[in-house]
Specification:
The complex is a heterodimer of chains A (332) and B (171). Chain A has 332 residues and is mainly alpha-helical. Chain A has one domain (2-59, 69-313). Helix content of chain A is 67%, strand content 3%. A two-stranded antiparallel sheet of chain A has the order 1-2. In chain A, strand 1 (21-26) and strand 2 form a beta hairpin. The longest helix of chain A has 49 residues, at 73-121. The N and C termini of chain A lie far apart (72 Å). The model of chain A is unreliable at 1-7 and 309-332 (pLDDT under 50). Chain B is an all-alpha fold and 171 residues long. Chain B has one domain (21-168). In chain B, helix 2 (36-146) crosses helix 3 (152-168). Chain B is rod-shaped, with a radius of gyration of 63 Å. Mean pLDDT of chain B is 86; it is low at 1-6. Classes of the chains: A mainly alpha (332), B mainly alpha (171). At the A-B interface, strand 2, helix 2, helix 3 and helix 6 of A face helix 1 and helix 2 of B.
Chain lengths: 332, 171
């Protein structure tokens, strides 16, 4: 059993973090844990939000003024999050028109990613692996150890620590950004935007020399921005969980190196204390990264709008309302 | 080396990628249809309720302020009216008192005059009676002293003399 535990601890902390196959097979295809987490996360996210929506919505008139009060802690937290994100974050950045249009997508993305991130904080997979060891199911335990090839785990892991998942989420942002661009600016306006904006395209002929460079940079930027969203989310989720795995692996490493059990226990206690602290940091990061993904998507979308939200990047000035400008656009 | 050791965090696999896009889109669609309208409606209704309550409170406050100003205005007017009434009442009371005093004084003067007249009359009567009595007495005494009867001329002289003496003694 000890050998199995040591093996389960693994030499590579990433093995505990990265996506791996689950014990579920459909049509001969073994589903990765990330896929199961995505589906379960979506169901939980939709379920919790629907429950919250029913509690946030106005009750029957027979309740009097109490019908306007949100019932339940989770619903109240979700309400606060929605109000803060809508009124304090998205409205000032995007303007009311754009914010109303994109609010459902942006907030859905936020809560979906948040749910997946929070799922990653609960060691569902590790608990199942521990159960296999405790119950003496050696076959399952061995399968757990061979993380990438097979597993006896049905559910767990952090879906957002899988690049394929974050890339998929970023793809939705990518489509939303282009959709906004074609809808608001049109094909001509989008091309103008990619060429540096009307000031450059309709400017002196000498500026035409730089248009190919601007076009290449802008076009690359259109892909790099969503890619950066995907990589940022992945990196933050992987880094935190890897750090946790490293901290918890110290004790096992001591045992593997032939150290005394009291030393391994002492190190595990100290490392466990820091792991608890890191868990709180991870909780914060789970919220922060969900927010950053949503917020940057909102910023990128607003860059493609007629309003000057985001056009400050190129110094364009189309009659902005000035809400989102932390710094003035450079004068031409 | 374990199989997972060789795993690359940046590996892209189709199944998770497609599932991610599909599930996320489905989530967005379901939430957009079934969740956000309810939440937005609830928040908007609450916002309208709060704004309505605030407006009603402001209206009530303005109404109360107007009522208070009207009350204060009426109070000041009432004070002015009361002052005027008090002033008028005092004037009327003063007039009444003056009239009463004048009448009392007149009555007193009349009473005094009448009393003086009565006193004069009484004194004259008393003096006349005294004169007559004194005259009789004097005549009687003189007759006794002189041993004869005195005539009217003597009598008159005696009486006048007696009166003078009487008057000089202050009685």
């Amino acid at each position: 059993m000890m050998n199995t535990l040591l093996l389960a601890a693994g030499d590579n902390p990433l093995a505990h973090v990265l996506d791996r196959n689950s014990a579920i097979t459909i049509g001969g295809t073994t589903l990765p844990l990330s896929v199961i987490s995505l589906v379960v996360g979506a169901i939980v996210c939709v379920g919790v939000l629907m429950l919250a929506a029913s509690r946030i919505s106005t009750g029957p008139a027979s309740e009097g003024n109490a019908r306007f009060v949100t019932k339940g802690r989770i619903a109240q937290v979700i309400e606060v999050l929605v109000l803060t994100l809508r009124d304090q974050m998205l409205m000032p950045v995007m303007g009311e028109r754009l914010a109303k249009r994109w609010l459902p997508l942006l907030l859905s993305l936020f809560f979906f990613i948040l749910t997946l991130n929070l799922f990653g904080l609960v060691p569902f997979a590790d608990l199942q692996e521990l159960l296999h060891v405790v119950t003496g199911d050696h076959a399952a335990a061995e399968a757990d150890v061979a993380h990438a090839t097979s597993s006896a785990v049905y559910f767990g892991g952090t879906a957002t620590a899988c690049f394929s998942v974050t890339l998929g989420l970023a793809a939705i942002s990518f489509v939303a950004i282009w959709f906004q661009s074609f809808r608001d600016l049109g094909v001509k306006g989008t091309l103008e935007h990619l060429c540096g904006g009307p000031d450059v395209v309709h400017g002196p002929l000498g500026l035409w020399l730089v248009i190919p460079i601007i076009f290449a940079v802008e076009l690359a930027g259109m892909f790099i921005k969503p890619a950066a969203l995907a990589i940022r989310l992945l990196a933050n989720m992987v880094a935190g969980h890897t750090l946790m795995a490293v901290l918890f692996g110290f004790g096992a490493a001591v045992l593997k190196a032939g150290g005394p059990i009291w030393a391994a226990g002492s190190i595990t206690l100290v490392a466990g204390f820091f792991a608890i602290l890191i868990t709180f940091l991870e909780l914060f990061v789970a919220f922060l990264q969900a927010f950053i993904f949503m917020f940057l998507t909102a910023v990128f979308i607003s860059l493609m709008a007629h309003e000057d939200h985001g056009h400050e990047e190129h110094g364009h000035d189309h009659g902005h309302d000035g809400q989102a400008h932390a710094e003035p656009a450079p004068a031409h | 080396m374990l199989a997972a050791d060789a795993a690359n965090p940046m590996n892209v696999e189709i199944l998770p990628l497609a599932t991610s896009v599909g599930v996320a889109l489905l989530t967005v669609i379901v939430i957009s249809i079934a969740v956000w309208p309810k939440i937005a409606k609830g928040l908007d209704e609450r916002n309208e309720k709060i704004l309505g309550e605030i407006k009603a409170a402001e209206d009530a406050r303005a109404h109360a302020k107007a009522a208070q100003e009207e009350f204060e205005r009426k109070l000041i007017q009432a004070q002015h009216d009361a002052d005027a009434m008090i002033k008028e009442a005092r004037a009327q009371a003063q007039n009444a008192a003056d009239a009463l005093r004048a009448r009392s004084e007149a009555e007193l003067a009349e009473l005094k005059k009448r009393a003086n007249a009565e006193m004069d009359a009484a004194r004259r009567q008393a003096v006349a009676e005294l004169e007559a009595h004194a005259a009789e007495l004097a005549v009687s005494v003189a007759s006794k002293v002189l041993g004869r009867a005195i005539d009217a001329k003597d009598q008159k002289v005696l009486v006048e003399q007696s009166i003078k003496e009487f008057a000089s003694t202050g009685r």
